[in-house]
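Re: magnesium ion structure - here you go.
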Amino acid sequence: MPGVDIQNISFSYDGCSRVLEKIDLHIDEGEFVCILGQSGCGKSTLLRLIAGLEKCSSGQIIVDGKAIEGAGLERGVVFQDYGLFPWMTAGANIVLALKKKFPALSKTELKDRTLELLKSVGLDESVYNKYPRELSGGMKQRCAIAIAFGIDPPILLMDEPFGALDAVTRSMLQDMVSGLWREQIQRKTIFFVTHDVDEALLLANRIIVLGQSPSSVICDLRIPEDKRVSRDRYFEDAEVLKLRNDLIRYIHADIRRHVKEM
Ligand SMILES: Nc1ncnc2c1ncn2[C@@H]1O[C@H](COP(=O)(O)OP(=O)(O)O)[C@@H](O)[C@H]1O
Ligand SMILES: [Mg+2]
């Protein structure tokens, strides 16, 4: 599975001031990277560059030895708005995505695989025939994750996928994504954008904090496997609380510096 080499990239939208400034990162295959930062700092932009939906103004992003040019099947994307076609049932949405990736599968195989995927994200068979409008936000996001893991790209890009969900649904889906990632023999490389420090600490084994625009990396933190805490112990673990406070301090200090410079 490929890692991702982000080589000194900078980016501005056409005619606008710089959003990202000299971001240089090597991400190993199988890392779960949370990109953390204040709203507007450029997290989605960085994700869109990795997805190939925007082109770097300078620098390049290397995946599997090649500079990326546009979107690619090895990079799947999950957005906050679920990405399901509203005129198709949840089942048909998943079947369509699987068919594109695995054209050789028969109709029955596609349906069987879709039902398995629904189960793997905690949804029952009845969801197969429901339209997105009949599903809650959490259920729609489960379908989107079923598609992402069903297509099985080695690199998964997620942009605040749980931002619109209530706290309980959100924590269930965090645990689900973490579980799906952990149980894989060859883990996916995941880029997960969030502005929520707790979400990052619960999910990531690497946290990259972006500063204010034009943003660069202000903190690159690895969380060793033996330092990870479960949700139950999160607020009792002194080391994690220290990390949490440090991260919040970095972000606040950067915002204060930015305000002073303005
Ligand atoms: N399509 C666009 N055209 C021009 N500016 C944009 C566009 N998308 C985002 N921006 C600007 O780029 C900056 C970073 O945006 P974004 O990457 O969406 O931040 P984040 O995801 O961290 O909230 C913001 O100042 C935003 O207004
Ligand atoms: Mg964003």
